[in-house]
Design brief:
Strand 6, helix 8 and strand 7 form a beta-alpha-beta unit. This protein folds into three domains: 56 residues, no CATH class; 91 residues, no CATH class; 170 residues. Helix content is 38%, strand content 12%. By secondary structure, it is an alpha/beta fold. The strands form four sheets. It has a five-stranded mixed sheet with strand order 5-7-6-8-9, with helices on both faces. It has a two-stranded antiparallel ribbon with strand order 1-2. It is globular and about 75 Å long. It has 14 helices and eleven strands. The two termini are 34 Å apart.
Length: 336
């Protein structure tokens, strides 16, 4: 797994190459700061080859790819342009002609090491034309899958053993919720969602539930911006597909964030929210939609330790009866 520093350096370098025209970048929807795919413009291929000594695909190799009697799963290579060397395609072919029906599905890096002798090769290839819709499929054809990062979490006090659990999007707020929960015993566990990694690692809920002694309702609290609402909804769909409870918004947290965040919104420069994205918030959806319509967002860190110490925001409530004025966190740091 790469460190945050390595990821930041790689992203910076990719954006520098894009500015210079060497590559094209496609960002993740709603995540303007995250890169989904990097491609080399056709007009730049010769420049790349000259600069880095790459070997151009010869007419002879292209002909070999077109004329080779590929296994049916790779039959599209007779007409498709892939930029994958013939030797790599042949390794895939050799794997695909084996009896795969008896193979267990394993992590992508393990399968990549088996096929190519390089655990990272398939990770790099999965974004290319080989894996477009109707072509190769990781699970069906290669019997492997992407493995999300395990979920970090902290068990609540014994008094909260049978209470719901909550997932917190960002690290600072997760730390404050863990600290608050250790005194107030409201959640059986506080999970660190780590942004989009929560949806990717949803399978690890099984381990958490096993440790807790059974399933629990799952609540979520994240940033009030399009990614912050998209993440739990995608996670919820994956959770229910695996037989887990759905992921619901922790309305008390979101309602408090809306109250204390008045006039503290930050500009949102990403893709506009869809018309139905805020429906997940139920009774709070309209208030969130108004913020998004103004091209603004609210960071969940507004609901930090100082506020948690002073607001009984987790108490059961009726939203329509909740008319609390905005809370101004004190300037000084409170003691634990």
């Amino acid at each position: 797994m790469r460190s945050a520093i390595e990821e930041s350096d790689a992203e910076r370098d990719a954006r520098a190459l894009a500015i210079a025209g060497w590559v094209n970048l496609k960002n993740v929807r709603y995540f303007a700061h995250r890169i989904a795919r990097i491609s080399i413009p056709l007009a730049m291929e010769d420049r790349w080859c000259d600069a880095f000594g790459f070997t151009r695909t010869s007419d002879d190799e292209a002909r070999r790819i077109r004329e080779f009697p590929w296994v049916p799963a790779l039959a599209f290579l007779a007409e498709a342009r892939t930029n994958i060397p013939f030797v790599d395609l042949l390794r895939l072919h050799d794997f695909l002609i084996s009896d795969r029906a008896a193979l267990d599905t394993i992590p992508i890096k393990e399968r990549s090491l088996e096929i190519f002798g390089d655990e990272k090769r398939l990770d790099l290839m999965q974004g290319c034309s080989l894996f477009r819709a109707g072509r190769l499929d990781l699970t069906r054809d290669l019997r492997c899958e992407l493995i999300g990062v395990p979920l970090a979490w902290k068990r609540g006090p014994a008094a909260a053993a049978h209470q719901p659990l909550i997932v917190i999007e960002n690290a600072a707020t997760w730390h404050s919720y863990c600290r608050w929960n250790s005194k107030h015993a409201h959640f059986s566990a506080v999970i660190y969602g780590d942004g989009n990694r929560f949806a990717d690692g949803i399978r690890y809920l099984a381990d958490i539930f096993a440790e807790l002694g059974g399933t629990r309702p799952i609540f979520y609290f994240g940033d009030l911006d399009p990614p912050g609402l998209l993440i739990p909804q995608e996670a919820s769909a994956r959770a229910t597909a695996l037989g887990f409870p759905r992921v619901d918004p922790h309305l008390e947290s979101y309602a408090t964030l809306l109250r204390i965040g008045t006039n503290r919104e930050q500009p949102w420069e990403g893709e506009p929210a869809s018309s139905t994205l805020c429906d997940w918030l139920g009774e709070l959806g309209h208030a969130a939609q108004q913020i998004f319509a103004a091209r603004k967002r609210l960071a969940q860190e507004h609901l930090g330790w100082d506020v948690l110490c002073r607001v009984d925001y987790l108490a059961p409530r009726q939203a329509k009866q909740c008319e609390i004025q905005p809370i101004i966190p004190p300037a000084s740091k409170s003691s634990e």
